[in-house]
Amino acid sequence: MKKNILVIDDSALMRRVICDIINSDTNFQATDVCRDGLEGYERLKKQSYDAVVMDINMPRMDGLQLLSKLQEENIKATVIVASSLTTKDAETTIIAMERGAVDFVTKPGNLIEAKGDVFRGQLLGVMRAVLKIDSGVRRTISAGSSAAAAPAAAVRKPIQRASLKNRAGGKKLIALACSTGGPKALQSVIPFLPAELNAPIVLVQHMPRGFTKSMADRLNEISKVSVKEAEEGDVLQNGWVYVAPGGKHLEVARLSDGNHKVILTDKPAVNGLRPYANYMYESLTTCTYDEIVCVVLTGMGADGTQGITTLDKRKPVHVICQDEKSCVVFGMPKAAIEANLADEVVPLTEVAQSIIRNVGVK
Q1: Is 92 within 8 Å of 83 (Cβ atoms)?
Q2: Deepest in the core among 50, 187, 247, 337, taking most CB within 10 A?
């Protein structure tokens, strides 16, 4: 049975283009359209849809106002935001995900691009992932999830090597990767870490250029740790989070004084991804950290698994994966679990505490 999709956009042309894309896939049908957030609100009060594709900037009631109304009135909707690539819209998109949107796609700047394969692939890819087309199961993220951890069989047996968890002076680094659903998931992790966290964090979130800075700035506003979009040459410090910029790969290199710095590269995208988490993890094979805590959150695909596999052969690692029930898309964590890399599989609401237990505080 086809998934019913509601399209909300004030541009008649964009509504038509988006509907044509949706209807071109046998899994979906654009059931209804609305011209602004107010029409969308009235429609969603009366009818439910499998997903909503929504513009942000609209007259009468914009996308943020609509999301707030849905939250206030407990109206359930799986919302995918279509956002342009401006700085202002990037900031608004991050707020939209705070208010309940599960993911976003970047809206093309002209009709030719809107009708092109790139936008079509992005939109349908996000829709398939969010609506669990492959598994046939639809789940939405819940910040208050009390999901149990995955069965013990999914967690690997401890590797026989010297544990550094309680060794005085052991330096640790947290390397985190996420994709679809990640910006929202990160708000259930990063703000719950203490300023005295005894490790730096390097973070790859699959997002376009501009959006990563908005995300980092917003996380910095609401967190005790310091969060920034990573810059070339940043020296890693405990209690800081370094977000890989959209359009750049982030790697970590050791310095002669024992510290480590960020290196940003323009190597080609891999499977359309830049930043690419595998590159981040692979770069850590030559670091002098005593242990790497690898965290894999919600996201489509398998980015991170190969890099952690390589890293695991060279360095002590502890791998924390988000559980299936609390994921928007159980792709990246599932791949790591199936590769027998996971030491812990926990609900999203327990990820921060798992990190703290493994690295400690100053």
Answers
A1: yes
A2: 337
The order of strands in the sheet holding 28-34 is: 28-34, 3-8, 51-55, 79-83, 103-106
pLDDT in tens, the chain (362 residues): 999 999 999 999 999 999 999 999 999 999 999 999 999 999 999 999 999 999 999 999 999 999 999 999 999 999 999 988 666 788 999 999 999 999 999 988 888 888 999 999 999 999 999 998 864 333 333 333 333 334 444 566 544 333 334 433 479 999 999 999 999 999 999 999 999 999 999 999 999 988 999 999 999 999 999 999 999 999 999 999 999 999 999 999 999 999 999 999 999 999 999 999 999 999 999 999 999 999 999 999 999 999 999 999 999 999 999 999 999 999 999 999 999 999 999 999 999 999 999 999 98
Residue from 259, 150, 152 nearest 200 by CA: 259
Question: Which amino acid belongs to residue 121?
Answer: G
Q: Count of CB atoms within 10 A of residue 269's CB?
A: 12
Q: CA 104, CA 109: separation in Å to the nearest integer?
A: 15
Cβ neighbours of residue 62 under 8 Å, at least 6 residues apart?
37, 56
Q: Are 279 and 267 in contact (CB under 8 A)?
A: yes
**What residues contact residue 24 under an 8 Å CB cut-off, 6+ apart?**
120, 124
How far apart are the C-alpha atoms of 187 and 95, rounded to whole Å? 11
Cβ neighbour number for residue 212 with a 10 Å cutoff: 26
Cα–Cα distance for residue pair 30/230, rounded to 1 Å: 39
- Token pair, residue 71, equals 């939250």
CA distance 315 to 280: 14
- Give the H/E segment covering residue 94: helix 87-98
Q: What's the pTM?
A: 0.87
From its phi and psi, is residue 39 left (phi > 0), alpha (psi between -120 and 50) or beta?
Answer: alpha
Nearest to 61 by CA among 80, 82, 35: 35
Q: Which residues are catalytic?
A: 179, 206, 303
Tokens of 209: 């250029």
